[in-house]
Structure formats: structure tokens, C-alpha cells
Amino acid sequence: MKFLKAYYHYYLLKCYGPIPIIDENLPVSASPEQVAVYRDKVDDVVTYVNDLILEALPDLPDYKDMVMSIEGGRVDKQIALAVRAEMLVMAASPLFNGNTEMAGLIDNRGTVLFNQTYDPEKWKIAADACKEAIEACHGAGKKLYTEIEPITVTQHPVFQLQTMLRQVVCERWNCELIWGGTNSQCRDRSYHSTPRVVRIDAGIINTISAQWAPTIKTVERFYTSNGVPMNEDKQWSKEGWYDKRYELRSEPSSGDEKYFVKEGQRTCYMHYNREPRFYASIGFDQGIYYGNGKNDFESCNYTNFLNLGWSGYQGGSSYSITGYAPKKMASYKNGVTNSTIAEPEYYPFPVIRLADLYLLYAEALNEYSGPSAEVYEYIDRIRERAGLEGVIDSWSKYSTDPSKPTTKEGLRNIIHDERTVEFAFESKRYWDIRRWKQIDTYNIQPQGWNIMGETPEDFYKLQNVAEVPVKVTVKDYFMPIRETNIITNKNLVQNYGW
What we know:
- The protein is mostly helical.
- The protein is built from 18 helices and eight strands.
- The chain has helices at about 1-15, 30-35, 40-55, 70, 75-90, 120-140, 155-170, 185-195, 215-220, 235-240, 275-280, 355-370, 375-385, 390-400, 410-420, 430-435, 455-460, 485-490, and strands at about 175-180, 280-285, 290, 300, 325, 350-355, 445-450, 460-465.
- The strands form four sheets. A two-stranded antiparallel ribbon has the order 1-6. A two-stranded antiparallel sheet has the order 2-5.
């Protein structure tokens, strides 16, 4: 109960910024004056949540004492420490640490609700909390998931790696998962993530929908096969692949490319020579789709997102508006035929997994004291799992900016990119963009392919997918307080811009 009370305060803090600390229930007989609570300062809310989690720890079970088939999702010590670490990283981040843009948020007592002086020591506090949580998770047997699925042991290493990377999310209660959400609508999420890989009967066409549609911007964020961003890759620059990334390649897939793009088919330059997490996470036009009932290379399916293609627009509402699907969020074990779909494999949504703590720790260390061997180590653990070389080696060999990982600012950008790629579609980026104060990122108009194109030449044309141009501002860092609450309680002050 104490942990949940702390967690709900933390979640409201993420949504609204400074909130009233409700440490005691008000009696039903409370006067209007007693009910008219004030919003507390950000730092006070952080302290309250931190202290309450620490108070709850002694009475929480240890992960090793849990029976996951019965108690999966119940809060344990490792979950509590991980949430505390995440909260303290948020408190150290620019949105909450010396945010002068919120200087005007002052209540009728004259209290400034956001601290106005940046404190680097908050990053040290956050780093220590991350390390404590990591050590507790290691002590409970948590580790990065690297299991090779038995069904892939006779298959090409490409499919072994891709399937493992998908199962990081989709393998229920695996060794990396710290907190799994058991009420996460896995069935609908799987259906909305899965593209049709065969032409299916009209009666079930709206079930397998791929309506969850990654944008071009998301697809571009994944690294090249050399483990660096596309716009920094020396090979991509030399071969002209980056400048031509949206163009349809004239040469069809051949040779070892057949493990990624259907042999003999054509797709755009951007879909070749990408990192393993790209192929494990993104369903793209003409891309090989291992699984869905076909678990050997000779018979496995591929997608066709062209208009009237089996994966593409066929009327109604059952299609991806961008021409992409989030392959990562549906288990490879899900099955589909021309006339039947299997019930999707259940898995709890990954609220927090160990890779999250690793990158939060690396971020906090870098922000406090800059690049170090320890920062590289925790980033490289995740990159190694993804089949990539370490940060220093990748940038020194393949990047046009080889010194990037040696500066705090450069390594900060790398860590941001690594979080974006590693946690794509896991509901992390929304909160990361806000705490990093990068709201303008969302003003880049979402784009996809021309899904009405019936030929590759027509399909591979960029299109804006929002009918009304997207426009966000500083006010969108926080949600508005309901107007009726402001009217009822004169002591509340509305959030900036609302």
C-alpha cells in the first residue's frame, strides 16, 4: 500500500508537475478550507515519494520468493528500487532540475513550485539509486535476456538473433523483466501490431490490422549495420545510401540480403544494411517476417504493404497508415493462416526491464561526471546483446564524428538514441522527450509511405499522415488541471500555458 501510494504520486508528478502531497486522508466532515489544498514544490514531492518507497522496502517481498505464475506483477523489492531510480533520474533531468521556463508557476502564497537552480548533485543521487537497483536485480538473478529459442537452433543466425530480440519483450516473465503489467491488453496490442503476412479471408481481415503504425522518423532512428546513425555512417555517405534512403532501389534483393528482404523483390535503400534491432522491431514492405506459424527460412512469409497487397490497404480501417508495423510487439509464436488466426501469446507489458536501468545509470553517470569506462560498459552490454560493437569502436571505425562518444554532449546524444532504439514502442520515449525538454521533436510532421500506391514506384513516396499539422508547445510538457478543480479550489494554480 505504501509503495502504491508513492507510485501514484510519482505518476501524477510526471503528468502534472508539482502536485499536492496527500499524506493523510481528509475526513468526510472536512471543511471547504481543509479541502482547498495547495500544490507542493517539485522537490518536496520527489522527497516524499523517495522516502515512502524506502519506508515500504522492508515489508515488500524479494523477487526470489515470488511465484510468478501466481504473483506475477505484484510489487517486490526490485520493482520498488527500480521505480525509485527512474523517479530520481526524472528529478535530475532538465524538465525538473532548474527549469526556468516554469518560473512563473507561483501559487497565492508566493511559493515558486519549480526549483530555479540546476543542481548537478541530483544526477549523483540518481546514479547511486540506479546502481543500487541494478545490484538488487542482479542479486535476484535478473540479467539481460539472451536466450536462443529452441525452434530457431537449426535456422540461420539472423533469425536466432532477431527472434531473441523480439522475445526480450514477448517472452513472459523472462529474466530481464523487472515489472510486468498484467492488465496490458496483450491480445489487442498483438492484433494491432501484426501485419497480414498472407492474404486472409474478409471475415478476419479487421482482426489482424497493423493499425499501430511506426512513422518514418521512428524507422530512421535505428542504427545502420555498423551501429551508428544513418546520417553519420561513412559507408552510407560514400555509397550514397543516406541521400537515397527514401528511393526505391533498382536492384532486387539478392545473396545474403534474402534474410532481410524477400529475394527478387525491391524495396527502398533505407531497408538495407540496418542493425539487427531494426529487423527485429520493424515490419516493412517486402521484409522477411519470421514466425506467424512459419518458423523455417524456406517457408517463412514476407510483407507486402502496397495498396491491395496482403499487408496493405484493402479498404475499411484495417491497415497501417504509414506502411510499417511494430513487429517487436507481437510474439513470433502467434499463428495465422488464410482463414484462421491463433489466440496471441500472452505477455505482460514491460513497465521496467533491466536494460532500462542500465541506460538510466549510464545517463546519470555521464551527466554527473562525463564519459567513463563504466558509462561505456553499461551501454555496450545492451549493444553487444543487439549484435553491435561497442560505442568507442563503432564511432571510431564507422562514424563521420569519431570523437562523439568522448564528450559529455556527444555521449548524451548517443544515450538518447540508444534509449530510443532499445525501447521503441515500449512507452518510454513519450516520457523521455518531456524530461529532456525536447518537445519540439514532436513538431516534426509524422510521415509514412503512399499506402495507396499499387506499384513500388508509387508506394515509395513520402506522405504526411496527420490531416491537421501537428503543433505542440512548452505547455504540452504537462497536462492541464481540470477547470472545475481550479474553480472549486482557489489555492490551485493552473499549469503553464493552459
